Amino acid sequence: QKEVEQNSGPLSVPEGAIASLNCTYSDRGSQSFFWYRQYSGKSPELIMFIYSNGDKEDGRFTAQLNKASQYVSLLIRDSQPSDSATYLCAVSSGGSYIPTFGRGTSLIVHP
Amino acid sequence: ETGVTQTPRHLVMGMTNKKSLKCEQHLGHNAMYWYKQSAKKPLELMFVYSLEERVENNSVPSRFSPECPNSSHLFLHLHTLQPEDSALYLCASSQVEASQETQYFGPGTRLLVL
User: Fold this and answer.
1) Is there a contact between B107 and A43 if contact means CB atoms under 8 Å apart?
2) Beta carbons of B106 and A42 less than 8 Å apart
3) Which of these, B46, B38, B18, B17, lies nearest to B86 by C-alpha position?
4) What is the pLDDT of residue B67?
5) What stretches of chain A adopt beta strand conformation (E)?
6) Mean pLDDT to the nearest integer, A3-31
7) Which of A76, A80, B28, B62 has the fewest C-beta atoms under 10 angstroms from its C-beta?
8) Which residues of B touch A5 (CB under 8 A)?
């Protein structure tokens, strides 16, 4: 059973701070890692994907992958109230196009 | 706008009704998915159609029946549903064989079973 674990939160951070969201996974054969953002009542939308160990930056977002420790994280710099949403971590294994999703972490950015 | 559309956006049905959800993708993808999202639960994969292959979650009740007439269209036929089937039903598509399996989601159908 492939598992993807996330702290459900809510994670509350002040505006302008760095929000750190974490995700661990059980399948060592995992090769593709995704972060989706889901606003309340809306569908998930892709923010970042990462395949290689290390950091990947895109604007205010940085994904960090550590395959040895089986975790992937998402950092949001200069957090804004508009970043308040649920963040879903998804993982897929080599040869599988079907990802496994975590439960999501609720992020609240307060002014 | 992700290129994946779903209709209807909202649906209220009784337990004896039969209805269908429709999904269409305009991205040229070759895989389409149905997910169920209930409150406080992770996304639950229900069905996948990819390269004319169907994959299903064995825990999905038979009152849900998928149909995929071509690579751009996906249906979910509903009959004799139960109140616990009330949820957000999401359709997604992706391109299999690409170096990334990013899923593009439609807006979802909010289903309420009375």
Assistant:
1) yes
2) no
3) B38
4) 94
5) 4-5, 11-14, 19-25, 30-38, 45-50, 54-58, 61-66, 71-76, 85-93, 100-101, 105-110
6) 94
7) B62
8) none
Cβ within 8 Å, pair B90-A43: yes
The closest alpha carbon to A2, from A26, A22, A24, A23, belongs to A26
Task: Using a pLDDT cut of 70, give the percent of chain B over it.
Answer: 96
Predicted confidence (pLDDT) per residue in A76-94, tens digit: 999 999 999 999 999 988 6
Place of tokens 């995929």: B68
Q: What is the pLDDT of residues B51-104, one digit of tens each?
A: 768 888 888 999 999 999 999 999 999 999 999 999 999 999 998 876 567 899
> E strand or H helix at B10, and its extent?
strand B10-13
C-alpha A59, offset from chain centre: 15
| Cβ-contact B49, B94 below 8 angstroms | no
